[in-house]
Write a structure and sequence with these properties.
Elements lengths: L14 E6 L2 E5 L3 E7 L11 E12 L7 E7 L2 E9 L2 E5 L4 E4 L4 E5 L4 E7 L1 H6 L1 E11 L10 E5 L6 E3 L5 E7 L1 E2 L2 E2 L8 E8 L4 E5 L5 E8 L1 E4 L3 E4 L2 E5 L5 E6 L3 E8 L7 E3 L2 E3 L2 H12 L8
Antiparallel strand pairs: 1-22, 2-3, 3-4, 4-11, 5-10, 6-9, 6-11, 7-8, 7-10, 9-12, 13-14, 14-17, 15-16, 17-24, 18-23, 19-22, 19-24, 20-21, 20-23, 25-26
């Protein structure tokens, strides 16, 4: 049986908590974020996911400046940016660049080290508009932390969409698979990442692997999980390791991000933009960046 097929015998995943943002702050001068991971009080329970920032939604007036975050390094993990509204331009020290807009996903593997910038796209900045997105940090296993950096642009029309039974809504598969349909993202450890839209008054059932760390982030709307717990806008629902099945019932039209991944059971040492396994590796990362070994933007 397909691991994501609906199964009457699958045990229900226990909902262990619903969390609100731990902090609200600006990243650079262009990204107002609510930090859900680790700021909401959950951290190692969500490995391999290290961070979840919810950007906006916020309206930016027209400007002749590209707001955002200037040149900065990363090593040891991946950044995943999912856009819902607005446009963001990316440029990095490997010579890769691109623009992502509504429905697009940028999956950047920093690995051994990369320097990049993230700015409002020029035309978006000039016209102004609503900005909304999610940025995730996904840890890399020790064996891949010093691999070659890479960049995946997953544009909207390349991300497969599955229509849910009974007209309940749609599910886009960014990574992993759902009912035999695979997402385009290449990952270093097993990850399922879904962009889910549920219509008010409808419900759907998801089956995700037992033993994976699983959570649901609610961008907007209101959903009842497993017939009991209500999750509202900008809240994160965390599930236990046991069981496979969850039922989501939309009380309002809802937009959700479903995250499920196999835990990376290795030591974590993190400092700012670096995530390694030991303090010594963090020191080396800082020295390598200062020595220019991660490159710079021209």
């Amino acid at each position: 049986m397909n691991q994501h097929a609906t199964s009457a015998v699958a045990a229900t995943k226990e909902l262990v908590g619903v969390y609100q943002a731990g902090s609200q702050h600006m990243v650079g001068d262009g990204f107002p974020v609510r930090n859900m991971i680790p700021g909401a009080g959950v951290d190692e329970q969500l490995s391999p996911f290290l961070l979840l920032d919810y950007m906006g939604p916020e309206h930016f007036p027209p400007t002749d400046r590209q707001l955002g975050v200037g040149e900065h390094p990363h090593r040891g993990f991946e950044t995943v940016t999912i856009m819902y509204q607005g446009m963001v331009a990316h440029r990095d020290s490997t010579g890769t660049g691109g623009v992502i807009g509504p429905g697009d996903v940028q999956w950047m593997t920093a690995a051994s080290g990369i320097v990049h910038e993230e700015l409002h796209e020029k035309e978006f900045a000039a016209c102004g508009g609503m900005l909304e997105g999610v940025q995730l940090w996904v840890n890399l296993p020790r064996a891949f932390k010093m691999s070659k950096p890479r960049y995946q642009t997953l544009v909207n029309n390349e991300i497969p969409t599955v229509d849910l039974a009974g007209g309940a809504g749609q599910l886009r598969i960014i990574a992993g698979e759902f009912r035999g349909v695979s997402g385009p993202a290449k990952t270093f450890s097993p990850v399922h990442l879904y962009d889910l839209r549920l219509k008010a008054g409808h419900q759907t059932e998801l089956t995700l692997p037992e033993g994976f760390n699983t959570s649901v982030f609610m961008l907007r709307g209101q959903v009842v999980i497993n017939g009991s717990q209500t999750v509202k806008e900008a809240e994160l629902a965390l599930f236990g390791h046991t069981g496979e099945r969850m039922v989501l019932e939309a009380k309002e039209n809802a937009t959700l991000l479903v995250l499920s991944g196999e835990p990376i059971e290795e030591p974590i040492a993190r400092y700012g933009p670096f995530v390694m396994n030991t303090r010594e590796e963090l020191v080396q990362a800082a020295q390598d960046y200062q020595a220019g070994k991660m490159g710079h933007l021209s």
